[in-house]
Structures are given as C-alpha cells and as structure tokens.
Amino acid sequence: MILVWLILIPFLGGLLCWQADRWSEQAPRWIALGTMVFVLVISVVLWLGVDFSVPRVGGSQWMLEWRAPWIPRFGIEIHLALDGLSLILVALTGFLGALAVLCSWHEIAERIGFFHLNLLFILGGVVGVFLALDLFLFFLFWEMMLVPMYFLIALWGHSGSPGQTRIRAATRFFIYTQASGLLMLVAIIALVFVHYSNTGELSFSYGVLLQADVPEPLAFWLMLGFFIAFAVKLPVVPLHGWLPDAHAQAPTAGSVDLAGILLKTAAYGILRFALPLFPEQSQAFAPVAMTLGLVGIIYGAVLACGQQDIKRLIAYTSISHMGFVLIALYSGSELAIQGAIVLMVAHAFSSAGLFILSGQLYERIHTRDMRVMGGLWGRIPVLPGFTLCFVAASLGMPATANFVGEFMVLFGTFPSAPVTVVIASTGLVLAAIYSLQLMQRVHYGPEHRTGALAGPDAREYAMMLALLVLTLTVGLYPQPLLDTTAAVAGPVAELFSNSADLIARAGEVN
Amino acid sequence: MLTLSNLMAILPLIIVASTAILVMLGIAWRRHHGGTAVLSAAGLVLALATAPLASTALSSPPLMTLDGLAQMGTVLVLLCALVTVALSHHYLTGYPGAKEEFYLLLLCAVTGALGLVASSHLATLFISLELLSMPLYGMLAYSVRSERALESGIKYLVLSAAATAFLLFGMALLYARTGQLDFAALATGVAASLDAWVLAGAVLIVVGLGFKLSVVPFHMWTPDVYQGGPAPAITLLATVSKLAVFVLLVRLTITAPGFSSDWLASLFTLLALITMLGGNLLALFQSDVKRLLGYSSIAHFGYLFVAIVVGGPLAVETAGVYLITYLLATLAAFGVVTELSSPFGSEDAAGLHHYRGLFWRRPWLAAVMTVSFLSLAGIPLTTGFIGKFYVLALGVWGSQWWLVGGVIAGSAIGLFYYLRVMVTLYLPEPGMRRVDAPGDWSNRIGRLTLMVVAVLVLVLGVYPTPMVHWVAGLSTPGF
Q1: DSSP H helical segments within A275-309, as ranges?
Q2: Do A73 and B374 lie within an 8 Å CB cutoff?
Q3: Does residue A204 have a pLDDT over 50?
Q4: Mean pLDDT score, A71-95
Q5: Nearest residue on chain B to A75, judged by CA atoms?
Q6: Would you tell me which residues 459-478 of chain B have a C-beta closer than 8 angstroms to some C-beta of chain A?
Q7: Interchain proximity A185–B389, CB inside 8 Å
Q8: Is B379 on the interface with A (CB under 8 A)?
Q9: Which residues of B touch A155 (CB under 8 A)?
Q10: What is the mean pLDDT of chain A?
Q11: Which pLDDT does position B477 carry in this prediction?
Q12: CA Rg, chain A, in Å?
C-alpha cells in the first residue's frame, strides 16, 4: 500500500497546491516542498529498513509489491513493485523534486498554484514509471508525465533565440515523445497478443510477459519499438532534436526535472523492460546501440563546445553523458550496468547543480548568453566556487560520483568492446574542454560590467551544499549504492551472457 | 405483424416520437421556452428509462434488429440528445426569433437516429436517415438572419441530397441484382452473385454513408457547416448523427460479410488512411475552434474505420468504446463552445482569440475544454486514451500494420493542433481579471451537464472497466 501512496502523494499535493493558490502566495510552495520531502523521507526510510546485500528469500526480486485488478477484460492490473533500482530512482525523484520547488521559489512569480500542480504531477508520473510493473500501467505513467511538462515549458518557459518560442519547443518535445511512445504501445500490445495466441493467457504483467516466446523477425521489431521510445527520451542522437530547445526554454525547475529525472526514466526503461523482455534481440542489437552511444558522446560534446547559451551547453553535455549510459547498458557486463546506474545518479546531481546555478545566474544578470558574461568570479561571492565544483563533477574528476560511474562503465565494457571504450574515452577529453570552457567564459576573463551582485541566500546555499555533499559522498563511498542495485544489474547481465551463449551455440550448430 | 412485444422493443423510439408531437401541440397551444425544454428533456429521460425495459423484449419488430448494438446506439443517442437539450436552453434565450421549434426539430432528428441504429432493412435505413437529416437542415440554418448559418444549412442540404441520391442508386442496384432489401437476405444474395453491379451498388452505399460521416473524399461540407451552424445544432450533428450512421455501417458490415470482400476491405483501408491523415493535416492551422473540431471529427472517424476494416466481435467492441470516448470528448468541447456563445449573439464565439486566457476568466470552462482536448488527443487518464488503446489493439490484432502506422502518425499530427488550442486557454491576456461569468438557473444546468461530462471523461479514463464491461456485454462475446 505504501507504493500506492508514493504515487498518490505527489498527485494529491499537486491538487492541494492548485487550490492553495487562493490562500496565499507562499502556501503552494510550502505544500509542494513538504510533499516532495515526504516522498524523499518515505523512500529513505524504506532504504534504511532493508538489507540489500543478502539475496531475498522466496526468490522474489521485489522488496515490496502491490497489485489489484484494473481492467480485467485485457488482464490489466495495477501492479506496483519496488526493488533496489526503483528505490534509488524514487528517492532521487523526491530529492530533485524538492530542489525543483526550491529553485523556483523566486523565479516563478505568477500562476504559482498551477505551476506547482504541473510540477508535482510530473514527479508523480515519474514515480509511477519507476514503480509500475504492468506494461499498460507503465505506459500510462510514461505518457502522463508529458502533459504537465508541456505546460511547464509552454507557460513558464523563457523565449530563447528568435524564432524559437517556448511553445514551439514544448510542442516539439511533446510530439517527439508521444509519437515514439505510441510505437512502444503498439509493441506492448503486439507482445501481449503474441503471448495470448501462444498460451491463451491475456496479461500485461511484466512477470508473465518475460516468459513470452515471440517468433524471431517480430521480436526484433518489437524490441525496436521499445528501444525507439526510450531512445527519444534518453536521448540517443538521431532522435535528440527536442532536447536542446526544451532545456533552453524550460524554467529552471523544468530543466532540473528533465535532466535529472526524465532522462533517467529512459535508462530505467531500457534496463527494466527492453533488455529483459528481448535479451537475444538486444544482444544482437548491442553493436548498433553502442555505436549510437558513441555518436552521442562525441556529438553532444562537440556541440556543447560551440554553444553560446549556457543552458543549451548543459543540455548537450547531457546527451554526451547519456551516451556512456547507453553503451554501458548494452555491454552486458554487471560492472558496467552498475556503473551506468551510478552515472545516472551522478549526472542527476551534477546537471541539476549546473542548471540551478544557471538559473541563479539568470536571476542576477538576466541573460543566459555566455558572450555577455565573463569575470563573474569577482562580482558574485560563493556561486562561482560551487560552479567550479559541479563543472569538475561533470568532467568526471576523481572523488566525484561522475568519476566512479564513468570509470566503472569504461572498465566494465572494455572486455566485450575494447574499441568502443577507446573511442568513448576521447569523450572524457572533450568533457574537460567544454566544462573548462564554460567556467572560463562565465566566471573568468574580462568583466563585461562592474558592480557586485548578491551572493546566495540561505536557500540557494542549502541547495548547492546538499548536491555537492551527495556528489562527493557517492564519489568517495559508492558501496551502499552498488549494494542496493546489485540485485538488479546482476540478472540483466546474466540474461545477456546467456543469450550470447545461445547465439554462439546456434552458430556452432550451423 | 406488430405484436405488443415488438412495440415494447421500440418503446424509446415511440416515446421520443410522441414527445415530438406533444411539443408541437404545446407550441401551437402556447409558446413557452422553458416549458418546451423541460418537456423535451422529460421525454428523452423517459425514453432512456425505458431502454432497459425494451432490451428485455424478446422479438424485434419487422425491418428492425434490436440487438446489443442497437441498444448501445439507443442509449448513446438519447444521452447525447439530452446533453444537447441542456446546452440549448441557455443558448437560445438570446435568440430573437421563435425558440421552441428548435426542440421539435431536435426530437424529430433523434427519432430518426433511434430508427437508424436499429434498422436492418434498406427501407428503414432510408426513412430513418432522412428523418435524421431533414430536421438537421432546419437546425443548421436556425438563425436565419445569419448569413453563415444559412450557408451552412443550404450547403448541408444540397450535398446531403446528392449523397442521398448516391445511396438510393446503390440500393437500387443491389435490389436489381438480388431482389432483396433486408440486410441478411441481401448478404446471402450478394455472396451468391458478386459482380460489378453489386460492387458498384455497395460502393455507392458506402459513398452515401461516407458523406454523412465526412470520410475524406466526401468531407468538403464539414468545415463550413461546422463553422456556420449554431453550436447546439453542430453538437447534435457531430454526435447523434455521426453516431447513428456509424452504428448502421457497423451493422451492415457485420450482418453482410459479403460486404467485407477483399476488394471492399482494401477500399475501406484506403479510406481510413486518407481520412485519419487528411483530417489531421487539414486541422493543423485552423484558427476557428468549430472548424478545427470538424476536421478533428473527420480524423476520429478515420480511426473508427479500423473497426470496419478488421471486423469481428472485438471490432464491434472497439467501435462501441471508441464511439463513447469520442462522444464524451466532443460533447464537452462543443459544450464549452456553446456555453461561451450563450446567450446567442449574432455569431458564435468560435474564433481562437475568444479562448485566449480563458482559464483566467472562466477556469471551470477552460478545465472542461482541456480535459476534452486531452481526450480527443488520446492522452492517458482520459477516456480518449482507452479508445486509442482499443483501436491500436484491434489494428495489431488484425495485423493491419498500415492502419496502425496511420493511427500513430495521425495522433502525432493531431497533437500539434490540440496542444495549440490547449495552451491558448492558459496564455495570459493583458489586463485580464479573474472572474467567472454570473450564472442564472438555465446557465447553471448547462454548466453542470458539462462538468458531469468532463468528470465522466476523467473517471472512465482512470477506471474504464464499467464502460468496457457494458460494451463488451452488448457486443457478441468472443475473442
């Protein structure tokens, strides 16, 4: 039942925020903050209450499970379950959700209640995605978080470069994700019907469909249906068109949510659904996926170097970092998959930090154009220091969580795909270039204007400090995180190597 | 011969027809707008109440089939008509001419629709279809002083007459070849002699019905008629009329399997594809909400055609569920247009600029509009998603990959204009104030109805089981 509450609390909080608008301006903010902190506290309590290092008794991989019939006609259930991976990601959602509320404290000045309604609905949808085990329910949440995100960008966004209005960016985001989502829906339905015609059992349940025996050419297309939906959200390079604009035009809270959590739903989807449902096809597809990941790493990094808009720059670095995640997921090595999870968490922290910082800069100097920045180190106290820390994290400096993640990804992938790893490593060099360039152009160099600007207040200080402490903690002692997700990464890697054996054996027979 | 049991089976139709006569006599006796509206609504409610009773009748009267499909059609037609009556009252209070005849026309059209959903004979088909269409001409041109409304009515009249001619010619061809008018007998006759004449007859009938459904090559009338007609009349046209014709088409294809020969199936596939894509593409840059909804309804019937192409019991269920989702969303959308245009002025508030910042002026109406557009776009947690799910499932089940691709492409294109209208509702307007329009009694009834429809869209989207059960129970079990 607690799983249901994890999803319901943000939704109820959102409705409350909407209505609280009429009481006072601050009420929705406090309610939203309280809601997200509540979600965070529940997930942390759950985390502390379970020992992940021992294998679970009874063979079930789920810590908590809750199911109820929903649409019996199609065998659709409300089936929620929690394991280490979903727990980490739900906690991350709670944490970044609270940050998103905090960082829009002064930025959002109008329609406050409605803003927080949308924000909390996104977060509720994301929590749903991380918990749903029924494929129909998963899809429902997957699509449902798009509408509030659309409103967030379209109504509270900034109009960036001329000709690129925020509504256009929001629409493009929505159409990309919705259309690719429908492909996944078709793949889900086809998978269910194949299973139905094989066994006579009509069910959308994850556990049941894992056993589905899909004939070969169809299985590949279905895998592709899932992959495309996740690839758009991750984003993988040819399908990334929505991301830079959506990021550049979203309000800070929207960017934090997009980069910190929404991109992670895609990696989660690949890990939870695309790989286990179609292990052999994924194995066969792995070279393509890895190549796409490589292209993403290099492309994102190179384009990041040429950006003038600070948020667009960070957006392109996200593409680059997600390329590492994609390579790791398709490497089939447990170490790399765990590295991908660490990298996801690390990227959530560092990109959220950078986006919040650029939001704070915007509040002070009212521009995101790096050409008119420069020399800010002397004008703003404290913030440049924080920026340096997160830039260092983003380029994968040892002692930060990003380093651990990238190192594990490259180390784990090397045995299976050495060439890929070698090329991917150049991404690290490029990361250093764009990160330092960001630092240089914004905070060092000649001053464009003079006059001191306000330093961070307690709220901003607290946000930055919390993110920094978490980045360093995970970077210095990642073991608890690895223990929590080991139970997830292991079986996926196993599935992969099994199917590799199968393919090899089939080759020998032929 | 008609027996008592037969009469019982068509009790809703009889009640609506007699309400129409009562309303006519009432108007002749004394004009009273409120009274007429209440009388019409009472008649519709009574008919609705007898619908379960009618379903217990054992035998259908001659020329009609009162199966599950007909029952579903009856209930949906009556509900849509009821919502339209609730919306019309406030709308018409501002109309300078005679208001009461609108209800008379409406009841006549509903009678036609009730006949149409149950007809299983070309004679009942034709009579019911005309009984449905004739009053609509009058309703569309009801505000005779408005140029647009007249244009709308006359356009519909002329093109509808042309379509009727096609329909009649098709029937004549079929009759000439088979000597039968009854659907079932016609089906066997057609199967026995499937030649060019029979196919030509079938195609002509499809053309005639396709016109009423505004399937793409025959859709030319839709935008102008939608734009010009008074909002309640359009509501009736978009819901009751299309619903009844589509139910009839479903019946034709399930009782006459010869109708779904390969050749015709590919024709239907083609029609479905160009309808869903054409409707969505044409809607893209409309700046008039009524026109936009017209094109959107074209697209939705394109999706519905998937059910006609695939066939089988699951197809009937899909058609039923999708129709319900379409009706609810359309009623809500046109309801908002009607409410905004009420009381009647010289022209309906259909231009997109009327909707700018609506959320900050009339939050509840904007919320209803948002819900209905989300549903039309097929976003989860609204019924529209359940409908879209059904259509996709049916397409996958029937391995109609082209159609599945069309539905996906159509939905993606459709999002563009649905989102455009939706975000307009929330854009701030300079100097806007937060007020809701003052409401008198009739106003409140209309708004309450709208709220109920919108809540239904959400509730059935979150928990569709009752709807699915009801429709699945009425379509033949199987699958």
Answers
A1: 275-277, 279-305
A2: no
A3: yes
A4: 89
A5: B465
A6: 463-465, 468-469, 472
A7: yes
A8: yes
A9: 423, 426-427
A10: 87
A11: 43
A12: 22
Using DSSP, state whether A324 is helix, strand or coil.
helix
**What's the CA gap between A406 and A2, in Å, rounded?**
34
Task: Enumerate residues 6+ apart whose C-beta is below 8 A from B438.
Answer: none
Angle ∠(A216,A221,A226) on CA atoms, nearest 5? 125
Whether the per-residue pLDDT at A503 is higher than 70: the answer is: no
Task: For residue A175, give the nearest of B395, B412, B427 by CB distance.
Answer: B412
Min distance A308 CA to chain B CA atoms (Å):
29
- Which pTM value belongs to this model? 0.91
What are A77's strand-pairing partners? A69
A345/A92 Cα distance (integer angstroms):
8
Cα separation, B147 vs B141, whole angstroms: 9
- A1: burial class by Cβ within 10 Å (0-12, 13-18, 19+)? exposed
Residue A373 has pLDDT above 90, yes or no: no
**Tokens describing residue A299:** 């492309």
Q: Residue B380: its chain A contacts at CB < 8 A?
A: 139-141, 143-144
Residue A51: per-residue pLDDT: 66
Question: Which residue from A minimizes the CA distance to B427?
Answer: A155
- In angstroms, rounded to a whole number, what is the distance separating the alpha carbons of residues B310 and B304? 11
Q: What ipTM score was computed for the predicted complex, to two decimals?
A: 0.88
- For chain A, say whether B20 makes contact (Cβ under 8 Å): no
Residue of B nearest to A169 (CA): B416
pLDDT tens digits, one per residue of A442-489: 888 787 777 778 878 888 888 899 999 999 999 999 888 888 888 888
